[in-house]
TrEMBL record:
HAMAP family found in the cross-reference section: MQO
Organism, as annotated: Pedobacter frigiditerrae
A single MF term (Gene Ontology): L-malate dehydrogenase (quinone) activity
EC number: 1.1.5.4
Keywords: FAD, Flavoprotein, Oxidoreductase, Tricarboxylic acid cycle
Gene name, Swiss-Prot/TrEMBL: mqo
GO biological process: tricarboxylic acid cycle
Protein's name according to its UniProt entry: Probable malate:quinone oxidoreductase
Pfam families, sorted: Mqo
Catalysed conversion reaction: (S)-malate + a quinone = a quinol + oxaloacetate
SUPFAM superfamilies hit by this protein: FAD/NAD(P)-binding domain (SSF51905)
């Protein structure tokens, strides 16, 4: 018997979104609000939205606002602290909060408690050199409106009030310091993403397909994209035609960008880093910690591995995590293939990847050390932040995969980036998001940047401008330089998102 031919169906869509994570959800919501007539198709290879990087267990969930993450404020050789990135991230997170508040007010996002809670953000260090760094960081950040409510102390008694578990059992000889921002948040990006997709999937001309994998991306002569999709259940392949394609597949974005074959995507590589948490199982300990406490990363550690003792709200229940501990896998996704890394190596990115590898020997050594850690080693790292911790109260939980971006330099070499990168075609017909932290928290700002690249003519119309300013009232303005606007904005978003009281244990 001859094999039955697989059905091929061709349809048209204005927009195809690849990956059902926070990035695609944000872009889909933005576009549908700006132009309700748009037809949008969303494809996800798993059977549920937000199961990879956006999932609560796979994402730091900090509500990255640079209040406590010390890696966003590097110290220069002269001892000063560079706060430029921290200011940018803090501003971007305020944009995200405005966007979410708008959809809460429209009853599109139902209860903000399902995805965002008010939890103080603390930075905590010990040792003379680190204390001097934190004091300098605090002084530098105080010059910006976004951080003016930050508190600083070197008093052990006050730090014990802020975070008692961190100070209990600690030697009184230790020189310590901490900063605190009560405005900090915990965000469950998995819950947020799924609610966004739940709304989108009910809109006209929007279809959400799970268990579908993108196999090919081909540019048509008329400028549209032909997208070959495989239904993983029926095994049938389909072809979709779209005017615009967004690749928001987390770690899976790089291989798909390579399939698009656009010149702008040449020379990019990816370096995968996996993670693990220690999860507290003692309810009494969990109930006594109400903060996100971030410390300094080890030399060579990637940003996703900055150690923190972290209060989280997952599925409505308070949790306590410590980590993450970094690891290495050749997978680009938690549910990916061990062939992901080798298959991503192409002629055009070999040199940048080798060059970046040679320049990051410290990172390689760090990852090897992390992989070789025993349970006892991981517990000793926890005890630096929680001196009275007991081994029996903690268990290992596997986090997600992150793929750090390797960019080609003009010289032909490569550089390892620890942020996010939007790569788009010159004609704006396709764009991909590469990289990791602080991605989810700054998703709205990243997608606005994408609109400026790929929907420039529409974005300049008075209709789109008015709609964006309705969603984000401070659009086009700078909160960092406008104290009154910053206060008004935070007061409004805090009221709408119910961020006026700390999390309850």
């Amino acid at each position: 018997m001859s094999k039955k031919k697989k059905t091929v169906v061709e349809t048209d869509a204005d927009v195809i979104l690849i990956g059902a994570g926070i990035m695609s959800a944000t872009l889909g919501l933005l576009l549908k609000e700006l132009d309700p007539s748009l037809s949008i198709e969303i494809y996800e290879r798993l059977d549920i939205a937000a199961a990879e990087s956006s999932d609560a267990w796979n994402n730091a969930g900090t509500g990255h606002s640079a209040f406590c993450e010390l890696n966003y404020t590097p110290q220069k050789k002269d001892g000063s602290v560079d706060v430029k990135k921290a200011v940018q991230i803090a501003e971007s997170f305020e944009v995200s909060k405005q966007f979410w508040a708008y959809f809460v007010e429209k009853n599109i996002l139902s209860d903000p408690y399902l995805f965002i809670r008010n939890i103080p953000h603390l930075s905590f260090v010990w040792g003379k050199k680190n204390v001097e760094f934190l004091k300098t960081r605090f002084s530098s950040l105080q010059q910006c409106n976004l951080f003016k409510d930050m508190e600083y102390t070197e008093e052990p008694a006050l730090i014990q009030e802020w975070t008692p578990l961190v100070m209990e059992g600690r030697s009184k000889k230790d020189k310590v310091a901490a900063t605190k921002m009560d405005l900090g948040t915990d965000v469950n990006f998995g819950s947020l993403t799924r609610e966004m997709f739940s709304y989108l999937s009910k809109q006209s001309n929007v279809t959400l397909h799970f268990n579908h994998e993108i196999r090919e991306l081909d540019k048509m002569d008329n400028g549209d994209w032909k997208v070959t999709v495989k239904d993983l259940e029926s095994k049938k392949k389909r072809k979709r035609l779209a005017k615009f394609v967004f690749i928001g597949a987390g770690g899976g974005s790089l291989p798909l960008l390579e399939k698009s074959d656009i010149p702008e995507g040449k020379g990019f590589g990816g370096f995968p880093v996996s993670g693990q948490w220690l999860k507290c199982t003692n309810e009494e300990v969990i109930a006594r910690h109400h903060a996100k406490v971030y410390g300094k990363a080890a030399v060579g550690a990637p940003p996703m591995s900055v150690p923190h003792l972290d209060t989280r709200i997952i599925n409505g229940k308070q949790a306590l995590l410590f980590g993450p501990y970094a690891g290495f896998s050749t997978k680009f996704l938690k549910n990916g293939s061990f062939l992901d890394l080798p298959l991503s190596i192409k002629f055009n990115n070999i040199r940048p990847m080798v060059s970046a590898g040679l320049k990051n020997i410290d990172l390689t050594k760090y990852l090897i050390e992390q992989i070789r850690q025993s349970p006892e080693d991981r517990f000793e790292a926890l005890k630096e932040y929680l001196p009275n911790a007991e081994f029996k109260d903690w268990e290992l939980e596997y986090a997600g995969q992150r793929v750090q971006v390797i960019k080609k330099k003009k010289s032909g070499g490569g550089i390892l980036e620890f942020g996010t990168e939007v790569v788009s075609a010159a004609d704006g017909s396709i764009a991909a998001l590469l990289g990791a932290s602080p991605g989810a928290s700054t998703a709205v700002s990243i997608m606005l940047d994408l609109l400026e690249r790929c929907f420039k003519s529409k974005l300049q119309t008075s209709e789109w401008q008015a709609k964006i300013k309705a969603m984000i009232p401070t659009y086009g303005q700078n909160l960092a330089d406008n104290n009154e606007l910053c206060e008004q904005t935070r007061k409004h978003t805090s009221a709408v998102l119910k961020l006026n009281s700390l999390v309850e244990g």
